Amino acid sequence: MSNVEVKAFRKLLVATRNPGKVKEYRQLLHRVPFQVTSLEQVGVAKEVEETGKSFEENACLKASTYATLSGLLTLADDSGLEVDALGGAPGVRSSRYAGPEATDEARVALLLKNLSGVAWEDRKGRFRCVIAIAWPSGEVRTVSGVVEGIIQYEPKGANGFGYDPVFYLPHLGRTMAELSLEEKNGLSHRAQAARKAVTLLNSMLEE
Predict the structure, then answer these.
(1) Which string of b and e fits 16-42 if b means at least 16 CB within 10 Å?
(2) For the domain 3-204, what is the CATH code?
(3) Looking at per-residue confidence, does 34 or 67 come out higher?
(4) Residues identified as active-site
(5) C-alpha 175: how far from chain center
């Protein structure tokens, strides 16, 4: 990708319909020389089915498809929770764990039900995020981030979304949902991957 081609794509489409994720990315990407926009803002209604077997496959699929549909440089991620005691589940099915129409509360409830009787020391898990950046031409690059934690016995905290209320961070003594957005964006899996994405996006202008 030449410098001229990158400059032609000064808009960066963040391919998600999750308002919490859009809000996070607007803050995480504030240091990139691109105008961040969303699927709603550019009028892309198509839903991309996540058929990949890994976070990377799904992120690349979404980024490539939406880049082609929008004609814009596109960032998409796939992220989720991996719990050791559940063999890595929910994994790539994190957002569909309790069914496609389930609420965050329903997904958390099912997770806790499936971990019923599992001892504290065996409730280890991690949030994993893979970000893919794609051009309409078909080029795709990826970066990733991981944060380790423990799945606690009941939800706690009103911030964040998804599994944040039961994802306990031992070094902080709080769940992800008890952190402020600024604190979360300093350590989360998405924040780690986003920092790498920022470096990548900035480097594109120097190539």
Answers:
(1) beeeebbebbeebbeebebebbbbeeb
(2) 3.90.950.10
(3) 67
(4) 78
(5) 18
